[in-house]
């Protein structure tokens, strides 16, 4: 079995804890974890993690709210760092617009565009964080005509989920699907060829406990199997194919 957690933040844990978390994941059959390094410090930590653990892959970007804390020069430095590491990363992310945490739409939009341009330039998938700005994100992405897009933990309305689906983009199902009708609905209306599974560890624990970890990604796989009427093995195989198609093209 090869389970894949396409979105986690294991750099949030203490080093000793990280070791245990990667061990737990491997024991559970989670062979690939995409760590999303999404603020200045976590970019460096993510690059360290991939050297230490072959199961961990790097996704680098700056979280929308964190971009607001950077000067123009500091942001360029981070973009350069990502560009320099283009062979060490599998995607750009998580980037996007978050109007829940800040109402500064213009600055966020400008920076998001820079990351979209970077993803196109490097020909990498881009992992999107959108909160209360789902439509704004979709419109910018449609205009860019970039094709390799994953909407992470997308909480837009059904119509927007359908729009993402019809655009041929991907959606990742978080482990909190366990208690979320909205994500269960997403599974039923999006073809499995466009789905991924993620934990967003240490957040979004499937049983609402304290720290989520990649080993729990199985909860998302099980929910997909249940709703799509497939075996766990079939889901695992298809998601692995999706992974290879998008991230290892
Ligand atoms: Zn995240």
Descriptive report:
Helix 7 links the parallel strand 6 and strand 7. The chain is of the alpha/beta class and 249 residues long. The protein has 10 helices and 8 strands. The radius of gyration is 17 Å and the shape is globular. Strands 1-2-3-4-5-6-7-8 form an 8-stranded parallel beta sheet. Bound molecules: zinc ion (ZN). The site of zinc ion has 5 residues, from loops. Zinc ion binds next to loops.
Low-confidence stretches: none
Q: Strand count, sense and closure of the main sheet?
A: 8 strands, parallel
User: Helical percent range?
Assistant: 40-55%
Number of separate helices: 10
Question: Overall 3D geometry?
Answer: globular
> What is the strand arrangement across the widest sheet?
1-2-3-4-5-6-7-8
Quote the beta fraction.
Answer: 15-25%
**Looking at the chains present, what oligomeric state does this protein adopt?**
single chain
Radius of gyration using CA atoms only: 17 Å
**How many E strands?**
8
Mean pLDDT: 96
Secondary-structure-based class equals alpha/beta
Distance between the termini: 21 Å
Cofactors and ligands present? zinc ion
Tell me the series of helices and strands, N- to C-terminal.
Answer: EHEHEHHEHEHEHEHEHH
């Amino acid at each position: 079995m090869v389970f894949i957690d396409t979105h986690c933040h294991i750099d949030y844990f203490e080093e000793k804890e990280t070791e245990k978390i990667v061990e737990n994941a491997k024991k559970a059959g989670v062979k690939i974890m995409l760590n999303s390094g999404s603020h200045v410090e976590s970019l460096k930590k993510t690059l360290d993690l991939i050297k230490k653990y072959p199961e961990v892959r790097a996704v680098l970007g700056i979280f929308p709210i964190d971009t607001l804390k950077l000067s123009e020069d500091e942001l360029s430095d981070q973009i350069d760092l990502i560009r320099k590491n283009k062979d060490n990363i599998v995607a750009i992310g998580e980037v996007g617009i978050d109007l829940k945490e800040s109402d500064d739409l213009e600055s966020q939009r400008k920076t998001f565009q820079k990351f979209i341009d970077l993803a196109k330039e490097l020909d990498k998938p881009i992992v999107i964080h959108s909160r209360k700005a789902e439509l704004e994100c979709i419109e910018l992405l449609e205009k860019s005509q970039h094709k390799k897009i994953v909407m992470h933990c997308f909480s837009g309305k059904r119509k927007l989920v359908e729009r993402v689906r019809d655009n041929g983009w991907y959606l990742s199902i978080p482990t909190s699907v366990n208690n979320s009708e909205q994500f269960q609905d997403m599974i039923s209306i999006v073809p499995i060829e466009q789905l991924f599974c993620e934990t967003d560890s240490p957040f979004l624990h499937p049983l609402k406990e304290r720290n989520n970890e990649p080993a729990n990604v199985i909860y998302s796989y099980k929910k997909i199997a249940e709703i799509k009427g497939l075996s766990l093995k079939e889901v695992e195989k298809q998601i692995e194919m999706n992974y290879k198609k998008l991230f290892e093209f």
